[in-house]
Structure formats: C-alpha cells, structure tokens
C-alpha cells in the first residue's frame, strides 16, 4: 500500500515542480525559495561529504500536501549525482553515476565479485550512518550480488526499516559497487509520505490475546492446488480466507481492518495500455528462405481481419455498435505447452464521441477458431456524491445472468465445471466482477477460472479472461482431510504473532504509523489438508537457493556460495552424491548465466527433456544438437568440455597437437578432450588430486561439478 501511495505522490508532484538552477537562482529577498534551496543544499553536502568539484548544479522543489521534496542534481566532467531530500534535510534517495574504469572481458560464465557480501554490508552501514537517524532508525540489510560478466558487479542490499527496534512498513535499499566499495544508490520507500513524529512504542494489549483475535479472522478455506513440481496432481490445502486485512491495535486491542480504511484520496487511474503498431506491408521482390516459408505456413487457416471482427461484433453483450472503430489488429504466433503452433489476434476498437472521453475495447482472439481469449475495457469516470450510495441500472442478478450467458458461449464445457465465487456480488467502481472458479467434488481449484466483468450502468461485458490448463489435472481424494478448525490452529501457531508498525491513512496525502500485532512469519501461506504440514514460501533473505541435504557435506560451503547467487538446482535438494547427467550439467552451468531450470527426474520414461534447456545450451555453444543425451552420465572430462565451451574457448580447445594437460594420467584423457582439460587447468577450473591425477573418465557427481563451476567463477 505504501508503494502505491508513493507512486501517486511522485506522479502528481512532477506536475507541480518548481525548478531553480544555481546559475539563475533569484537573489535574496525575491522569494523564500532561494533561501530554502541554499539551506537544503548545504545540509545535504554536509551529510554526504559532497565536495566542490562539480561543474553544474540544479535544484527543483516538488510540493504535494504536507510533503516537500527537493531534487538536487550535481554534474561534473565524469560524474553525476542525484539526491532527493525532504525539507528537514532527510535524504530519501541517492544515485551516483561514475565512469567504469575496471571492466573485464565479457564471458558467458561470470566471475565472483571482488569483495564479499559482508564487506558490502560494511560499506552500506557507513553510508547509512550518515543518512539515518540512528537514535531512532536501524535496518538489517540482506541481499546478494549480481555476478560480473563484463563490468563491475553490484551488491543489492535491502531490508525493512526498524523504528525504536520495531519493524515498520518502510523499506531501505542500498547498492554497493563490488570494485570501488562505494555506495552507488540509496532509497527509502517513504520518500513521498509524511508520517509525522514516531512515538515510543507502548503495547498495552497482551500478545496472546492479539494472536487469538487474529486467528478468529482466518476463516480457513479448503482448495485444490498444484504443488509446483511439474506434476499434474492437485493436492488439498487450507488457505486463510479473511474478509479483510486485519491487525490488532497494540494500544487498544481493537481489531482493525486495513482494507476498509480510505486509501483512495486523489488516487489517479493507474491503468495503462499498450499501443502496438499496425503491421506494415511486406517488401516485394525477394524470395523466401526455408525458415521464412515455414513462418508463412504457420499462418495457414488464420481468419482474416473482417472475419474476426464480424465474429466479435456478433456478441451483443459487448455493446460494439458501429461507433466502435477497429484501430489495429496484430497477429502473433507461438507454440503452446503441447508444442502446437497457435496464432492469436490482438485488436483495439475505439469510440470517441463528441465532447466526451474515448472508450476502448482491447481484445485477444484465437486467430484460427475465433474464440475470444481476453477482453478489457476502460470505464468512463462518473463523479458521484460521496455522501450518497450510488445507484446502478442493472442489479447483481441481471449482471450475473449476462456473465453466465456470455461465458457459456465462449467456454460452455468449462463453465459447467465451475462455481461462482461468493465475492462476486456488489459492483466496484461501477463494475460487477464475476469469478467462476473450477471445482472438483465441490472444492474450489482456483488456478482454473473464468472471469467476466459487467458494467453496472450499461449491462455490457467489459472484461473477460480465463485460465484453464490444456492438460488433464488429477485430484487427490478429500477423505482424511483435517478439520478446518485444526488447520486454523496449525496456521496460527506456525505464522506466529509479532509487534510491528503498520501504515494507516490519516489526513489528506499523509499516513500514520500504528503499532499493531500482525503475523510474524509472512512466508506461511497455508496448511496441507491431509498431513497438516505448514505450507511456506521459499524464504532466503540473501536471494539465493536453499537445500535440505547438504549439511555435513565437506563441500557444503562451496554449494552454499553458489546458491547465494542463485546458481544450482531448483527444488530444495542438491543431491550432492548423485551422478551428474547431461541435463544436470547443463542446468547447473546455465544457472550461472541467470537461467534457472528444473531438471527432469532420471527414469526410464523421462528421455524427453526440456527443449528450453537445450535451446539455451545450443545458443551458448555448450554442446551440439547431435550430442544431446539428457540422461547420459557425464564424465569429469566431458563436464570440463561443457564449461570451456561456455567460456567461448571451443575453437582453441579443438586445435590438435598443441596441448598437454600436465596430469599423471594424461594418457587416459580422450583424444578430443585434451585441449579442453589443458585449458581448464590453466584457468584454474581443475587442479588434480594429491597424486597429480585428474581421473578424466570417472563419472562426475553433482558436487564435483559444483566445485569445478565454483573454480570457474573464482578465476582472475
């Protein structure tokens, strides 16, 4: 909510900016702004230790309600500095741009940063000592570094701001350059808000009583959901289904529903639309290549513009009168989950009446069948008396009938498998929104649904969207499910209760901080309805991966260092002693390039692997299409080949007769891999064992592969 409010303020303040340049600033006595600019500039320079080497400067004032923000910009020969501060000199944003003087050659495989995350945190802490009120404010920064492909790596650190040692809704982010160890950016999320003074925390409400009050709002709901591991069997789980966003006022013990508070004062419509260009005519005279011809053939059987438009206008529920003009249509080709070629058509229809705002309809259709895939519309603003309850022409019952009729025309079989969500009742901003969730044995499966919006004044369909899996979904039996009350107890105990500051609206364009009890562990989101196990989001404060099977492994530190940069295997298990398959090797290497995949389990029926993984490997030159063999165990020498190819040394590595690896077992290295092994040793990827042996034909394990990749990222 804070972020949304901030966006509003920043958008509006730009329109109210008063710009003052240092060279053309008014002389003293002509107005108060010159004195204010002088005072804030001196304050910021002192706080940040800004010198006098910059050659130009300007300052601008943005005022909105009680908030005054100064934008201060310094420019030198090779450096720019941007600072935002409030009237009291509190710095809320900082950005430095300086030339990069220590770039390294680009590589597909990056390098580790030149400093540790602890060193970056120390640099950030020194900066925060300057810009935070340490008598009141503190923050525990977490985060990690981007890896260094072709320039300076950057540590991105963040954390919630604590006030009087208690977590607040304000967030802090700091970026630190890994070479210069300098802070290059700083931001605090309350830059456009006025919280006023922060009083000392005083909680008179008992924590246990607050926990019981919060538990009473849970109203656990039994649903089906896919587990997210690639399987298509939906499991049963309880999720909280509160009718609001509740906290407990720490001073009064009163339940407070944050969703019922007025956050909408002056908020503009933040909806935006994508304006795609109309397709241009193809150049004449040139013959088609094989691939171009293949692309042309993909459009066979596609309906024309007039055919699609005619089908669209046949839906009376859309209200597409002749006044609506087709502005553009774009055709888009893609492959679905079953590797079948699909073509969609995206259209915009516009109606601009005299002396009125434009109305839009944005539509996506299946270009071969004409089936409506999605629809969105803008709704013209109607000013209502805030003291009166708005009245609409169409009742909820009439709107629901239209929604059902329309959805039944588009997805008749799917609609039969749904039930109307109970939230689909009262109009919001003049629009009824009906959500039809898929059900099995009367239990909701919300991942599949049909959504229809109906204008409460016109009765027309204004939005339509569906999400329905093209594959078959199996559902576990509901027999043996724990009771709803038991699930609530487990959820409440697992989530815990903590004292925090929360943001609440106060006067116009201002927010207050309320000390309240909320859930302590926000990662807890549900309960397995059969086992009673807590369902938690993967939570790694350092932004990397976590594993449940590496504790005690002698190379755990290496695996964890890779994981802190998001390098490794998805799924929560590393399986360090498992044989490395070809697909495992590619997944591990590709994760170092920022591409994360889940390898398929090795079994007799899993020969078909993800084409996405192999397409990425082909594009980086790691292996050829002829070498594809996903479940093949990979030797140490073969894995070295993949790494060296990823580094871009293939052309050198295959040169015959010039390489000697220097291990005692060189003669056992396959002839075509000697160059690869020699280069890998020279770079420092491999070192050999205590006896000077490389053992090139031994099957690599996952942890061996991790060690070699770690050495690769550690290269100079």
Task: Give an overview in words.
- The chain has three domains: 2-188, no CATH class; 201-267 and 297-381 and 392-543, no CATH class; 556-713, no CATH class.
- The protein starts with a helix and ends with a helix.
- The protein is α+β, with helices and mostly antiparallel strands and 716 residues long.
- The relative contact order is 0.09.
- It contains 16 helices and 27 strands.
- The longest helix is centred in the first third of the chain and has 16 residues, at 33-48.
- Residues 1-31, 264-286 and 601-609 have low confidence and may be disordered.
Residue-averaged pLDDT, rounded? 81
Q: Tally the helices: what do you get?
A: 16
Tell the overall outline: globular
Please tell me the total number of domains.
Answer: 3
Rg computed from alpha carbons, rounded to a whole number of angstroms = 31 Å
Cα-to-Cα separation, first versus last residue:
45 Å
Number of distinct beta strands: 27
The stretches of 5 or more residues where confidence is low (pLDDT under 50) are 1-31, 264-286, 601-609
State the share of residues found in helices, binned by percent: 10-25%
Strand count, sense and closure of the main sheet? 10 strands, antiparallel
Roughly what fraction of the amino acids lie in strands? 25-35%
How does the helix and strand content classify structurally? Answer: alpha+beta
């Amino acid at each position: 909510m804070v972020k949304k409010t901030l966006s509003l303020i920043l958008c509006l303040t730009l329109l109210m900016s008063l710009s003052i340049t240092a060279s053309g600033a008014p002389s003293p006595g002509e107005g108060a702004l010159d004195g204010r600019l002088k005072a804030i500039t001196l304050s910021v320079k002192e706080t940040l230790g800004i010198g006098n080497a910059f050659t130009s400067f300007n300052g601008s004032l943005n005022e909105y309600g009680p908030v005054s923000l100064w934008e201060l910009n310094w420019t030198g020969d090779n450096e720019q500095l941007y600072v935002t501060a409030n009237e009291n000199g509190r710095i809320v944003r900082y950005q430095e741009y300086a030339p990069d003087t220590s770039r390294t050659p680009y590589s597909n495989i990056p390098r580790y940063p030149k400093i540790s995350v602890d060193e970056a945190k120390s640099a950030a802490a020194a900066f925060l000592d300057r810009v935070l009120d340490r008598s009141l404010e503190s923050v525990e920064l977490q985060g990690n570094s981007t890896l260094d492909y072709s320039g300076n790596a950057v540590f991105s650190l963040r954390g919630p701001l604590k006030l009087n040692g208690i977590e607040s809704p304000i967030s802090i982010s700091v970026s630190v350059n890994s070479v210069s160890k300098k802070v290059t950016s700083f931001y605090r999320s309350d830059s456009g808000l006025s919280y006023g003074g922060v009083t000392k925390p005083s909680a008179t409400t008992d924590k246990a009583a607050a926990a019981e009050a919060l538990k009473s709002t849970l109203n656990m709901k039994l649903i089906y959901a896919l587990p997210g591991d690639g399987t298509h069997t939906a499991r049963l789980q309880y999720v909280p289904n509160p009718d609001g966003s509740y906290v407990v006022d720490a001073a009064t013990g009163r339940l407070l529903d944050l969703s019922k508070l007025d956050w909408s004062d002056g908020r503009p419509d933040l909806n935006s639309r994508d304006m795609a260009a109309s397709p241009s005519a193809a150049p004449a005279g040139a013959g088609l290549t094989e691939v171009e011809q293949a692309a042309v053939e993909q459009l066979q059987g596609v309906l024309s513009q007039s055919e699609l438009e005619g089908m669209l206008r046949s839906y009376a529920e859309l209200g597409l009168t002749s006044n609506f003009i087709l502005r553009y249509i774009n055709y888009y080709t893609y492959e679905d989950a079953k590797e079948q070629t699909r073509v969609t058509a995206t259209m915009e229809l516009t109606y601009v009446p005299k002396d009125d705002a434009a109305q839009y309809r944005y539509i996506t259709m299946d270009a071969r069948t004409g089936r409506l895939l999605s629809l969105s519309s803008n709704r013209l603003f109607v000013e209502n008396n805030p003291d009166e309850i708005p009245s609409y022409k169409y009742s909820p019952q009439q709107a629901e009938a239209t929604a059902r009729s329309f959805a039944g025309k588009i997805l008749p079989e799917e609609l039969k498998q749904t039930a109307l969500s109970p939230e689909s009742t009262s109009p919001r901003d003049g629009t009824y929104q009906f959500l039809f969730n898929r059900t099995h044995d009367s239990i909701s499966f919300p991942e599949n649904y049909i959504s229809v919006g109906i204008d409460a004044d016109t009765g027309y369909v204004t939005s339509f969207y569906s999400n329905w899996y093209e594959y078959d979904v199996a559902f576990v039996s509901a027999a043996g499910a724990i009771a709803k009350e038991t699930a609530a107890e487990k959820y409440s105990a697992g989530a815990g209760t903590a004292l925090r500051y929360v943001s609440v609206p106060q006067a116009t364009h201002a927010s207050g901080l309320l000390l309240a009890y909320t859930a302590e562990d926000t990662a807890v989101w549900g309960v397995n309805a059969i086992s009673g196990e807590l369902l938690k989001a993967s939570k790694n404060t350092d932004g990397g991966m976590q594993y449940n099977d590496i504790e005690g492994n002698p190379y755990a530190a290496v695996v964890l260092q890779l994981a802190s940069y998001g390098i490794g295997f998805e799924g929560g298990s590393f399986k360090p002693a498992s044989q490395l398959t070809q697909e495992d090797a590619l997944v591990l290497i590709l994760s170092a390039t920022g591409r994360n995949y889940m390898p398929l389990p090795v079994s007799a029926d899993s020969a078909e692997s993800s084409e996405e993984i192999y397409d990425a490997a082909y594009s980086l030159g790691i292996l050829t299409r002829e070498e594809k063999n996903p479940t093949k165990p990979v030797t140490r020498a073969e894995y070295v080949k993949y790494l060296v190819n990823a580094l871009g040394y293939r052309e050198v590595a295959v040169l015959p007769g010039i390489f000697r690896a220097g291990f005692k077992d060189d003669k056992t290295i396959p002839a075509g891999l000697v160059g690869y092994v020699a280069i890998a040793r020279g770079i420092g990827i491999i070192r050999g064992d205590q006896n000077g042996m490389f053992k090139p034909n031994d099957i690599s394990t996952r942890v061996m592969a991790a060690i070699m990749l770690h050495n690769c990222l550690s290269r100079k």
